[in-house]
């Protein structure tokens, strides 16, 4: 049996040893004194003496001894032995999956004979598909939770059915745009500039907006929240803020900086009305609640809002690291 920490199980990112062909084996009754052919030594590096009898078990993953025993127990009734086992292979001792199958030798003895084939690629595909299904399930659950939250909070802040419909449609469209960005980006993360540009384009704000900053890739959870936040800020600027008048301007900048060893994203949203006339909102609607409460709760963001006479200044700071 192996001692100490077992080698790492082969993943798609690792460099496994080359796949081997079928390895023949023969065993006495119920798996006793199992002997592999010489190809076993090519795969594992064990000598003929080391692999003899039960010596080959030194290469077996500790967690797979139960599967081996269960396979032989089933074979008593079915007369067919089958088990998928992990075996330490190559100089680095990476694990490869072998499908070990056998039947009674049929030569007048109680022996069994069979072969072991390398199915590591199959297990990697299965594991990858399982991770994708889990990720998709998580995304669907998260999406439904956000949609329910948008519907509930929009209803709470709407005075009429028409007002509810209008606001809900806009927010649902913003969420749908964000999901499109997430699906297209894959593992690379959502481009912050593209997410912001989509929000501005949806409101047809024209040339009265300037924005810029370094390339920032957002994990899905941050993209979900910032996609809706950009929609709310843009919608407010068009309906009530600087973009409500022809002389108004909007400037958006972002940058990253380290704080206590964690990379932080900083966003500065500045609306400017040269002739003044900005009024702070009365009460807390959906947008204010999102910025001052939801962002802090969902993604640990620090948000400040300053409604000055000449315009509104919003700053957002949130951690980028470990925000999957």
Percentage of β-strand residues = 15-25%
Please tell me what the overall shape is: elongated
Can you summarize the main beta sheet?
5 strands, antiparallel
Structural class: alpha+beta
What is the helical fraction, as a range of percent?
40-55%
Oligomeric composition of the shown chains: single chain
Helix-strand pattern: EEHHHEEEHHEHEEHEEHEE
Sheet with the most strands: spatial strand order: 2-1-5-4-3
Give me the CATH architecture of the largest domain, please. 2-Layer Sandwich
Q: What would you note in describing this structure?
A:
With 324 residues, the chain is α+β, with helices and mostly antiparallel strands. It folds into 2 domains: 23-118, PAS domain (Beta-Lactamase, 2-Layer Sandwich), CATH 3.30.450; 124-319, 2-Layer Sandwich (Heat Shock Protein 90), CATH 3.30.565. It is built from 8 helices and 12 strands. The protein has helices at residues 39-44, 48-51, 65-78, 120-156, 161-185, 192-202, 220-239, 286-299; strands at 23-27, 35-36, 81-89, 94-104, 112-118, 190-191, 209-212, 217-218, 249-259, 262-272, 302-308, 311-319. A 5-stranded antiparallel sheet has the order 2-1-5-4-3. It has a 5-stranded mixed sheet with strand order 7-9-10-12-11, covered by helices on one side. Helix 5 (161-185) runs antiparallel to helix 6 and helix 6 (192-202) packs parallel to helix 7 (220-239). The relative contact order is 0.08.
Please describe the structure with a list of short key phrases separated by commas or semicolons.
Beta-Lactamase, 324 residues, alpha+beta, 5-stranded antiparallel β-sheet
């Amino acid at each position: 049996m192996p001692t100490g920490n077992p080698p790492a199980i082969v993943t798609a990112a690792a460099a496994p040893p080359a796949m081997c062909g079928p390895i023949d084996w023969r065993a006495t009754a119920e798996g006793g004194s199992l002997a592999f052919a010489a190809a076993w030594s090519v795969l594992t590096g064990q000598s003929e003496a080391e692999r003899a009898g039960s010596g080959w078990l030194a290469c077996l993953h500790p967690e797979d001894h139960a599967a081996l025993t269960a396979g032989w127990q089933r074979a008593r009734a079915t007369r067919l032995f089958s088990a998928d086992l992990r075996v330490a292979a190559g100089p680095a001792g990476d694990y490869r999956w072998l499908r070990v199958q056998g039947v009674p030798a049929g030569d007048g003895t109680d022996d069994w004979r069979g072969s072991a084939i390398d199915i590591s690629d199959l297990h990697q595909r299965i594991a990858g598909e399982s991770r994708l299904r889990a990720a998709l399930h998580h995304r669907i659950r998260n999406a439904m939770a956000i949609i329910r939250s948008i519907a509930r909070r929009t209803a709470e802040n709407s005075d009429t059915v028409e007002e509810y419909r209008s606001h809900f449609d806009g927010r649902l469209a913003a969420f749908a745009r964000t999901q499109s960005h997430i699906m297209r980006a894959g593992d690379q993360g959502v481009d912050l500039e593209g997410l912001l540009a989509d929000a501005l384009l949806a409101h047809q704000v024209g040339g009265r907006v300037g924005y810029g900053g370094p390339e920032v890739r957002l994990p899905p959870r941050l993209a979900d929240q910032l996609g809706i936040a950009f929609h709310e800020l843009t919608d407010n600027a068009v309906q009530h803020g600087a973009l409500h008048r022809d002389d108004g301007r909007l400037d958006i900048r972002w940058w990253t900086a380290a704080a206590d060893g964690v990379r932080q994203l900083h966003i500065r949203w500045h609306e400017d009305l040269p002739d003044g006339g900005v009024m702070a909102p009365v009460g807390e609607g959906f947008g204010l609640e999102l910025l001052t409460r939801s962002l802090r709760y969902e993604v640990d963001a620090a948000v400040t809002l300053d409604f000055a006479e000449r315009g509104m200044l919003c700053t957002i700071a949130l951690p980028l690291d470990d925000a999957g």
